[in-house]
Structures are given as structure tokens and as C-alpha cells.
Amino acid sequence: MSKRRIGSAMAAAAICAAAFAVLLPRATDAGAVLVAQDDPVRLADLQLESVLRNDPALIGRNIEAALASQDPDLAGSFVDLAEARGISIPGDLTQRVTEAAEEENSTKDVARRFFSGLVTGNAVDGASLSGTLAGDLCVFGDVRDIVREGSHLAKGEDTDRLLLGLAVAGVAVTGATFVTVGGAAPARVGLTLVKDARKAGRLGEGLSRWAGRSAREMVDMRQLKKALAAGSLAQPRQTAVAIKAAVRAEKAGGLVRLAKDVGRISEKTGTRGALDILRIAQGPKDVARAARLAKAKGGQTRAIIKILGRGALLLTAGAFNLTMWVFSAALALLGFLSSIKTATERLTRSSLQRSKARRLRRLSAAPSPA
Fold first, then answer.
1. 116: which residues sit within 8 A by CB, 6+ positions away?
2. Which of 195, 308, 346, 360 could form a disulfide with 166 if both were Cys (CB 3.0 to 4.6 A apart)?
3. Which residues, 6 or more positions from 3, have their beta carbon under 8 angstroms from its beta carbon?
4. Cβ-Cβ contacts under 8 Å for 89 (sequence gap 6 or more)
5. pLDDT along the chain (370 residues), means of 10
6. Per-domain residue ranges for the chain?
């Protein structure tokens, strides 16, 4: 009976040790992710390491896909990521990325996209953003959007109040840009990008709701209607002065902070990178995290977002599931230690019992005293 009890304890220890060995790698990864959940840079690094370890050819496939979709900027971002990770890329593939980027950045193509951004107010890359900004810095672009949406509002028609609020904020920030000689430039760039993302339907649903509430709180609609009644596109400067009076400056802080973060992202990742982030962001905290990631990763950011999505910014995998991996490994370790303790105790007890039995036998075998 004693041998069976010792054997069962040793078997339990062996099973727990095997379970711990299997669970330890997953538990280690889960624990690292849980610790890094408030650090988007470390969180992205950990998840990238896991993804690329399981699929080393992922970067090469994404470069091919980016070139096929005529997005050399994204292809270049994957090349940057590969270099940072020490992953080799075939020389001919790198050459194709370089040639595609040179073609996109030709003088003729850049001029065409600049003019398109200036006229339409839609930014999809750096060149068109420059054109859009040129219009917004002259307040023409923002006034154009305000007059268009404001006329819908006055007629009781469907009005994009978020776009209207962003344009009003843009008028106010443009004035600050000139006053501070560019000090508010990130906010100006950011507002333009958020506005363009809204027009293109590329603004995340959660971020749209938050920005819409902020815009409604920021704009005095009654005052704005008065400004629009007296203004026109023919006199954008005078109209802009009247529009500024409709801005509740004390309510504009959140929207301006968001715009600054978007502007900083654009500085590090380019226009397309900022638009990619606005598409997946569900609130200003996501954008703030993305700004931290972009500051650390620069040109790699678009590739990281493409691979990980919103998971690059925050913990999207269930924290409960990750915690369970850690808990299961800890439980297996505890079971191993407990089984070893039980086996040791039973071995000790068995040894003591055998020693006692031997002593009793020696005593009983000893001759009786005369």
C-alpha cells in the first residue's frame, strides 16, 4: 500500500511537471503581454515577435500585395520593418519597391496630386495633403466646408455636424498657426486629416461618435448661423472672423489634442499612415497610443498596423484568457511542488516505519537477560 501511495504521488509530480513544461512558453508570452498592455511600443514588439516567428514569410507576402495594390508607401514600410527585425528581403523585391516609390514621387505626379488636394480638399497622401493644407491655411477649404454643411443645416437637411465642427475648429486653429508662426501646425494638419477621413468614410465608428459629441459641444450653432448668413465664399477671410466667434474655446481642448496627435502621427508615418490609424481608432486614447507608437517606430508604423490592426495599440486579446494561461502554469507548478512534498513525506514515513520495524525485530531477537 505504501509503495502504491508513493508511486501515485511521483506520477502526479511527473504529470504536473509535463503540464508546466507545455504551459510555460504560453504563460511567459501571456505574462509579458499583460505587463506591456499600457505600453503600445512594447506591446507591438511582443506581438510582432510572435506573429513573425510563426510566419516568417509574412513580410514578403505583404510587400508583394502592397505593390500589387499600387501602394509603394506601404511596401516601403514593410521593408523598413524587415530591416529593423533583421529579416532578409530578396534584392529584386527591394528594387521594385524603390522603383515604385520613385515613380509615385515624380514631379508630374506630385504636382497632379497637389492640385487635386487643393481643389477637392481630399488628402490621400503627402502631395494631396499639401494641397489640402494650402487651401485650409488660406481658410478657403474650411469655409467651403462650413458654408456647404451650414446651408444644409439652415434648410433643415441632413447635416454632417462632425464635419461642420471640424471645419469650424480648423478656422480657429488656422489663426493660431499664423499667430504662433507654425506652433499649432500639428493641430492644423491633424484637423485636416480627420476631416478628410470623415469625408472618405475612413474614420473609426467609436472615434466618429466621440468627435461628433466634442464638435457639438464646441460650436455655438446659433452664432454660426448668424456668421453664415452674413458671410460667403467670395470673402473667406471676413467669413472666417465671424465664424471664430461661434467657437466655444473652453470646449475645444479635447478635439485640438486629438488633432495634434494625428498631426504628430502624420509627421512620422505620412498621410496614409495617419489615415490608417484613424480608420481603426475607436477613441482619442487609441490615437494617443498610436502617436507614441509612431514616434518610436517611424516608417515601420504602417506595416505594424497592417499586421496587428488595433491590437498594435492596446490589448485586444481577452485579458481573462491571457491571465488563465499564467494561472494554469502557476497551478501546474504548485501541483508539482505539492506532489513532490507529498512523495517526500510518504518516503520519509515509509523509511521511518521500516527503521522502526527493524529495531523491533532486533529487540525481539535479542536474548533475554538472565
1. 122, 128, 131
2. 195
3. 350
4. 59, 60, 63, 79, 82
5. 68 77 70 70 85 88 92 91 90 88 66 55 52 54 75 73 78 56 63 79 85 80 69 58 70 82 88 88 91 93 92 67 68 77 75 73 64
6. 1-31+323-361, 38-105+301-314, 107-282
